[in-house]
Amino acid sequence: MKKIAVFTSGGDSPGMNACIRAVVRTGIFRGLEVYGIQRGYEGMIEGDIKRMHSHSVSNIIQRGGTMLKSARSMEFKTPEGRKKAFENLKALGIEGLVAIGGDGTFTGAKVFFEEYGIPTVGCPGTIDNDIFGTDYTIGFDTAVNTALEAIDKIRDTAAAHDRIFFIEVMGRDAGFIAVECGIGGGAEFVMVPETKTDLNSVVKSLKNLRKSKSSSIIVVAEGDDLGNADQIMNMVKEKIKDPSKEFKVTTLGHIQRGGNPTARDRVLGSRCGMGAVDGLISGKTNCMAGVMNNSIVYTPFGDCIGQPKPLHPDHLALIDILSI
Ligand SMILES: Nc1ncnc2c1ncn2[C@@H]1O[C@H](COP(=O)(O)OP(=O)(O)O)[C@@H](O)[C@H]1O
Ligand SMILES: O=P(O)(O)OC[C@H]1O[C@](O)(COP(=O)(O)O)[C@@H](O)[C@@H]1O
Ligand SMILES: [Mg+2]
């Protein structure tokens, strides 16, 4: 293997830059030519692919976002789009790919490998942490810390006015961010897509809050089965029917996707990036380089996207216990 290319795809996540840097520098260190593909599968289809050098990735390890940019590509979901992508890679003589992204990116990478056979190793880049085969995904720790900082601020004003706050965090299909924010932010309740939300028990608990509680924080993952934070707040308000209780909603949104990556995300991104290149060199393909129990582990793409990554039941129990 002489030439490899790296790209970022799907929702960006803090630490993707550290991962790109590790791929480029490990590749060069091992004697490979490394190319960067702009805007994920979009750039692959358009042939927006450039040679990268060690200096190409200077001064990015501390930055959020991705210097290669990211995109969600509808065209790559079509056989015609993937054919164009393959022709562009073939023309440059690319013999290996590093795909940094989430479950969608790996689904695309798996299909592409099965059709065209270019060896591909992935790195788990998503704030959602919803990928089997790695304890944490690159960007999750930063997103949780960003959300927590906001929750702490909301708690100040919630306490000052004795209000009940519903705070919506990201997570279309996964509640990992919500659960960690719930534990770290001292929430009364956490609502996640993985479990059925029992509105009546939430209402009952809110009606019976101990008298010394001045405020309540309820963390809602955007993909909860009952709806978003605004919808759930309205349902609860309707059932409580107590004009003395004041309800507010804050949706944290895309601030969770940006900002300087935490130390954990820089280290995880760097380790996975190196793991992906070394994996390709040693003949691995159609799999992801993740970190489990502090070691690099390669998991087939089929498992990364096919196996559910469950929330830890102890974490959900912890929220109930610590909010008495
Ligand atoms: N079934 C599929 N076939 C081909 N490409 C896919 C498929 N699913 C997703 N992709 C590609 O991966 C991209 C990123 O997926 P997305 O779900 O948006 O983000 P993430 O990788 O962060 O989960 C999509 O925009 C699409 O180009
Ligand atoms: O920025 P967009 O395109 O609106 O996407 C929002 C979604 O992206 C995420 O931030 C990350 O999801 P992916 O990693 O699957 O792209 C989700 O938590 C959120 O639902
Ligand atoms: Mg995803």
Explain how this protein is built.
The chain folds into two domains: 3-139 and 261-306, Rossmann fold, CATH 3.40.50; 144-257, 3-Layer(aba) Sandwich (Rossmann fold). The protein has eleven helices and eleven strands. It has helices at residues 16-29, 40-46, 79-92, 103-116, 140-161, 176-184, 199-207, 229-240, 263-281, 301-306, 313-322; strands at 3-8, 33-37, 49-52, 96-101, 120-124, 163-169, 189-191, 216-221, 246-251, 287-292, 295-300. Strand 1 (3-8), helix 1 (16-29) and strand 2 form a beta-alpha-beta unit. The mean pLDDT is 96. 1,6-di-O-phosphono-beta-D-fructofuranose binds next to loops. InterPro entries: ATP_PFK, ATP_PFK_prok-type, PFKA_ATP_prok, Phosphofructokinase_CS, Phosphofructokinase_dom, PKF_sf.
